[in-house]
Inverse folding.
């Protein structure tokens, strides 16, 4: 296997990725009142320096009420543009493309950080805007018995929210991001509109499938007004949510979104029930790849595959089998931020250290040329050696 596809550059609209490796949005819960901190610079920076083609900054909230935790990133005001640009500039200096995911937590807002128990937050004096942070959703239906009943949005508020997504896209562009992803998955606000379980509205945003799709379609239209034509737009969907929304609905939606200017569907699953989005039904290598393949074939749109893609040869095979156009590596890149360099080495790509900055690539290259250290500490050629190929 030559590894050619994973490391073949790809142009979407006017933006060229140097390879097909994407760092998917991963919350850091480390913002300060919505502002990025040095942690964000370091975190995005290490992935960009590690050789990924595209680094997507975590779900960043389009309004204050949409924050999941006290540590969520915000983009609901122009004051966030300059601090976000600091992160963008560093990603670009590493010859990677900077992306950002826009999100709104809906009825799952105002929660603890996952490592603090993943439950509704308790009121404390430090949270001065507690009432303004009341969770909102399409309908007054709780996520589960463990979660509070959200306030149902008024129709007028939904129209304001659509504009908030558009303004957030404008700010993302002003901050210098080149790829935008809309978070439509994992049981958060957009997914809540899509779901007949969470959305029991009787106005034009609820009821029939097309009414339930209306919010995301209007958001996409508002975003495309402000997001330049030459910049790619992705949408992440829970293609299967195990609660009434599945691949057929997702493919119908993807076709509509494509006509509205969406380039890539990022294919995830779950989250509308207590089932964790990143676990899914079956925990195995590539567990969400069939969802990506389905959307790619049935909606004729580019897709990104994500979920337990661990090895370079595994990623390469997904591309060769035409199951996806882009490969997102999430938790494994937390384990090894230099995953792209590592994969290039294992796949036998020419100049595996060329993708990364000379500050360390040069030394690893000379070490390899001198015939020593060609096998890094992570050496293992892939699925077969892991003994878990199936
Ligand atoms: C720490 C952490 C934070 C995450 N934050 C987000 C997020 O902000 N937006 C999102 O759509 N998915 C988020 N995810 C899900 C990942 O993007 C990815 O879909 C998931 O981890 C499965 O891929 P993996 O098996 O390669 O990790 C997060 C996952 C992790 C582990």
């Amino acid at each position: 296997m030559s590894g050619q596809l994973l490391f073949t550059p790809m142009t979407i609209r006017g933006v060229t990725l140097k390879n097909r490796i994407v760092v998917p949005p991963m919350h850091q819960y480390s913002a300060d009142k919505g502002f990025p901190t040095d942690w964000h610079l370091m975190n995005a920076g290490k992935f960009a320096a590690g050789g990924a083609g595209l680094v997507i900054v975590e779900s960043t909230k389009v309004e204050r009420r949409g924050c999941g935790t006290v540590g969520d990133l915000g983009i609901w005001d122009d004051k966030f543009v300059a601090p976000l640009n600091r992160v963008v500039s560093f990603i670009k200096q590493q010859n990677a493309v900077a992306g950002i995911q826009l999100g709104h937590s809906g009825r799952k807002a105002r929660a603890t950080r996952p490592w603090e128990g993943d439950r509704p937050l308790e009121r404390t004096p430090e949270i001065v805007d507690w009432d303004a942070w009341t969770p909102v959703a399409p309908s007054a239906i709780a996520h589960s018995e463990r979660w509070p009943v959200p306030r149902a949005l008024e129709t007028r508020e939904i129209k304001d929210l659509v504009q908030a997504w558009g303004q957030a896209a404008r700010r993302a562009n002003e901050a210098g991001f080149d790829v935008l992803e809309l978070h439509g998955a994992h049981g958060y606000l957009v997914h809540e509109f899509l779901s007949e379980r969470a959305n029991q509205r009787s106005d034009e945003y609820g009821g029939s499938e097309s009414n339930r799709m209306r919010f995301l379609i209007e958001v996409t239209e508002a975003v495309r007004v402000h997001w330049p034509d030459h910049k790619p737009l992705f949408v992440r969907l829970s293609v299967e949510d195990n609660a009434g929304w599945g691949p057929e609905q997702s493919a119908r939606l993807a076709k509509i979104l494509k006509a509205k200017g969406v380039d890539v569907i990022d294919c995830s699953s779950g989250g509308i029930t207590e089932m964790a989005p990143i676990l899914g039904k079956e925990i195995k290598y590539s567990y969400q790849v069939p969802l990506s393949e389905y959307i790619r074939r049935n909606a004729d749109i580019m897709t990104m595959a994500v979920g337990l893609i661990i090895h370079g040869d595994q990623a390469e095979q997904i591309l060769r089998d035409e199951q996806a156009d882009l490969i997102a590596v999430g938790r494994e890149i937390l384990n090894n931020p230099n995953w792209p360099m590592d994969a290039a080495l294992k796949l036998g790509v020419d100049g595996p250290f060329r993708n990364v900055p000379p500050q360390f690539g040069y030394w690893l290259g000379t070490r390899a040329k001198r015939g020593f250290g060609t096998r890094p500490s992570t050496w293992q050629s892939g699925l077969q050696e892991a003994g878990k190929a199936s």
About this structure: The mean pLDDT is 94.
